[in-house]
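Section 3.1 - Work completed
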Amino acid sequence: MRSSIALAGAAIAALSSALACATSTKQFTTSGGVSYTYEYSPATDYNGTSKPTFLFFHGFPSTRRDWAPQLAALEKAGFGVLAPDLLGFGESDKPDPNNLSAYRWSVVSDHMAELLDAEGLGQVIGVGHDWGATAMARAYNYHPDRFSKLVFMSVGYVHPTGFIDIDAINAQTLAATGLAQCGYWYFFNHFTATDLISNHLESFYSAVYAANSTTQNRDVGHIGAARARLEANRTIPLAPWDTEAHKQDWLSQFSKPGAVAPSLNPYRRALTGTDVPDDNAVPEVNKLLNVPVTIIGGSLDTITPGAVMRVVTEPFAMRGLEEYQLQGGHWLGWENADEVNAILSKAGGDIAR
């Protein structure tokens, strides 16, 4: 029988091979000395005209590898693709996680602009999932000239007001459904969260990459649910859309020393107001989305319901909004890969014309 280590190595190699077919893995160091690892494949040149390039922003608890189905499909269709591990994730740098200021959206936004410059890219189509949707939105707020279109997946536009009222969200959802939708935010801000997640990675993986998204608000989202699940070390089988290669690669990345703590920083910055001064300084015109906007939501997503996306995004979409609600959960890029790839291809084709 092959050892679990050998199986993990084979699974990681399989996922790495799938990524390599579509892209090249590269490294980039910013002017401030921060290193990013990213996947890149340039757009195909047709008679002197290139198709647009997509810049992907992953969410939590993800890495660039969660975009593997999209990178392969779009590269094959001739589009350019660029997918970094964001700061604090995967193989990119992880500054001191207690220095929340080092992870500010304005800092990461400037890094992304430098990365585009390094690859000789002017404008790109931004695609953001989960917290990556907010990272993409802030990159647009700070550098609107670098984006020709924005695609929000699972999470809509978070206007840079500097304040997210999680208490109000939890009170409203608790009254409406009996479950506090964002109760897990409190756990992620607790001093025990890093160790508890690190010591129960398989349980955490099966909680977030769950087969049944319709119960995630009960199993993970509600106050105390995530902690109880990890303390019991509960695991469930892989979702039918997931792969063992993806799981083992994820475990390999998040089992590295110091990997979990910085990944929680988006939640911690949101509740400590770290980004508020930067958000307040964004020019009002840049807070409006003056490019075409697409939203892709999951009708079965109970952590970040797809139905909410239009409500928070449409008031700021000055150039129109195209909406897709897919029959899926939170991980649409995997669960609904073909549909997502078709939507992105259409978005790229609209820009190319």
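Second construct:
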Amino acid sequence: MTEDADDAVETFYTEERWQNWITRVEEEDLDPENEDSARLLLNLQDDAAIAVAKILSALDDGRIDDDRALEEIETVREIVLADVELEDEEEAMLIDGVQTSLVPVFYAAEEYVVGGTVEGDLDEYVRAAADAEADEDLDAALGYVVQAGTRVIDGDRLDIELVEDLEYGLVSEWVNGLDSLQSAIQDPEVVEED
């Protein structure tokens, strides 16, 4: 690879980008009931999902191969899921919620790269995840949400009524992350940081 080709290598996400979001969170007086605060957190979440969607798009377009796609997804995951030191406990909890929502986004993207889209109905996977959570089998619940995520990547649509009917818990947070992924895949516009 020539030096020029190296310069042309696409950057999908950076630690600096994530840190800029965290700095904004620290500077805001966050209140999850406030629309602006909620939008900031959603933009933070969507921004990471957009990075994943762009990696998958680059893979589908043949700009990167499977190995590079997996490396890039892992890079974004490591940046986004790293421990965030925040003095404000509520802000730390809100960021933790965003991180939790994004977990299946990364795993679904990896699953999609390695094994493609699973067979079956997206809604059934979400229901199975909710049932597994009710049975306190969180590993199975996450597995079902990840499988649902491969369907989302393939273009299936989450049923918003099904999502709204979910009991609040890990599955509802994870499905919230898939909703960000769905939006990112349909319209992978960059969320402006400022």
